[in-house]
Amino acid sequence: MPQKPAATMADAIAAYHSYVSGQLDELRNHLGTLRAAVANADTPGAQGAWLQAQQCWQRVGAAYGSFGELGDAIAPGSRGLQGGSADPEFKGLRRIEYGLWHGQGAPQLLPAIDQLAKDLQALAAKLPGLSTDPADMPLRLHEILEDSQRDHLSGNGDQGSGMAIALTRADVEATQEVLDLLRTLLQGLKAGFPALLDQQLAALLKVIDQTRTGGTWTPYRSLSLLQRQRINGALGRVLESLALVPALFSTD
Amino acid sequence: MNLERRSFLMGSATTAAGGLLVACAPEQKEQSPAVTDVVPFHGDNQAGVYRPADQQASACFASFTVIADNRAELKTLFQRLTTKARILTGGHRHDQALPTEELNGVDGAPPVNSGVLGEDVPAANISLSFGVAGSLFDREEFGLKARKPKGLTEMKVFPKDQIDAAWVGGDLMIQICADSQDAVHYALRDIMKATRGQLQLAWKINGFHNKPRPDGAPRNLFGYKDGIVNPASTESLVWINGNSGQPGWTEGGTFLVVRLIRMLVEFWDRVGLGEQDGMIGRHRASGAPLGKDKETDEPDYANDPEGNEIPLDAHIRLANPRTKETSGSRMLRRGYNYDLGVDLNGNMQAGLIFASYQQNIQEQFEATQTRLADEPMTDYIEPFGGGYFLMLPGVKDENDHLASGLFA
Ligand code: HEM
């Protein structure tokens, strides 16, 4: 397990890479379960496995297209595709989500799952050699949750599952992970700031978890306006704080 | 409140932005005393009701859900809104000091100012008026039940209303008026940035106030001069006082009724002028009551008991029959036009943000609306949203804050 908190940015990046490779291993396991469920025409099972896989990918914290094209292949959206969600170019986890919630079965989905498994392997293989800009980690700390707002809670990324809240929760966990890695450094730059972020992230998790009933996630659009407002409020508050992080680390 | 170096306010800082900034603003003397684009924030009553005398051209009525968790956080919210209002209503230059809660204290962090109005924010006659809905008092966590103003119910649904759930509700109203739409937008965005964890928008609507065409009261979207008749502030119909039967903390406040009323302009334009005039009770061209010459002429209902001149069911006649018994039901109207775009079928979704201010919602707004229930104009309008709010008493000076009486 990576060392937390890291004493230098280089250590933080190294620790983050080892965290990511652990997540990718887990993701591959979920993909195996997903493949088996699809092959057995077990749609509920496949949907559950997809959610696990997608949450796992969110926990990687791959905001703003980090890991380059390798990362982009895992869960791109359907934006900008001529045929939208039905476009043959659409691939990755979101493509599988689309199929699982639109009545598709093994013939359409197995090729997509196998392609994803290949792309994942390529990413995992390249990961140790990837160099990461020191400015990347602070940006990541801020922008993972910007992506939640832009892609999940907006409804834009959804391909039918309605799991925006579950995915946002995983994004919060990714943010907490990165915060843990940067904690010592951040504390040195602004004393007390990590604790403030802890508190605001916890407040966000609290309102997120309040939307769960009996261990299941309510599709986002079925939540009441007040529930969505509470989430947006807690998210907005922590984002205003996280927006200071890149500047704190900036050496300009 | 701590201040950064450099402190200087544009505009009449004493009234607009509070002595605390003035205290370290020696350069203030160099400013010309006649600043015309500042609507003072401090006063016994809030701005945006009778002040400024001429309604600003642009407005936003923004209704928020309060998501603060407890009473202490709610109070802090009102204090924060007060600070915001002081700054926004005075205008500020980029090199002026700001209170510490406005600053993030991090070099190179995202700018505090969105830049929409440039680096120097003009006063632009921005007025910010804050109101609370009955729902705020019903929330257990705030412990304000005993403080609830009388008659601050949910908005009553009248027989011809077509209410859309997306356009009602909210616990806190912020009415923003300014000379231009960009200033209104700036103010709203600035406030929201500072209050994300306490306030979330429930609905909002932008409005515009027309220029006089060619003179007198500006016209509404039916083409009729609107806002000709309004009670004076001295008439004791608008501000809550010691005789209003309300909790003491509300004195100096007023009740706001917002009604979002779609106007079926396509249909209206297919009606003859004589019929239009009859529905309103005024001549379209001059704004004069039917049979009179000037908009300022008074209708004489006593000598027109059959409605030969002004039909008995004309809007102005039902709204204000000008009798002793109905005199107390008058109210201040200060609405705005809105234009929201397109309806389901390609017609214009446009109309009136009806805004009236009164001491008593039931005896004034509701009594009037009840008289208007079957007016012929109802065929051409569709109320679809809005709400009832208590507009808070004014913030007296730099030591006071919004809703201070509520927490006293
Ligand atoms: C889209 C809806 C409405 C339109 C187009 C409209 C239009 C007008 C017009 C053209 C006038 C005459 C000008 C003036 O005196 O200001 C007027 C007056 C008035 N309206 Fe409305 N109005 C609307 C809704 C309402 C509502 C909802 C109320 C209150 C319940 C109301 C209450 C009054 C009152 C009290 C007057 C003044 C009458 C007087 O004192 O002579 N109006 N309205």
From TrEMBL, chain A:
Compartment list = Cell envelope
Q: Which Pfam families match?
A: Peptidase_M75 (PF09375)
Alphabetized UniProt keyword annotations:
Lipoprotein, Signal
Q: Which superkingdom, per the lineage?
A: Bacteria
Which ranges carry the Imelysin-like domain? Answer: 12-213
Assigned protein family: Belongs to the EfeM/EfeO family.
PANTHER family for the chain: IRON UPTAKE SYSTEM COMPONENT EFEO
Q: What is this protein called?
A: EfeM/EfeO family lipoprotein
What is the organism of origin for this protein? Arthrobacter horti
Automatic annotation (TrEMBL), chain B:
User: Keywords, A to Z?
Assistant: Heme, Iron, Metal-binding, Oxidoreductase, Peroxidase, Signal
Q: Which cofactor does it need?
A: heme b
Signal sequence: where? none
Every copy of the Dyp-type peroxidase N-terminal domain together lies at: 53-208
State whether keyword Protease applies: no
Task: State the Gene Ontology terms under molecular function.
Answer: peroxidase activity
Concerning NCBIfam families, the annotation shows: Dyp_perox_fam
As for family, the record states: Belongs to the DyP-type peroxidase family.
Name used for this protein in its record: Dyp-type peroxidase
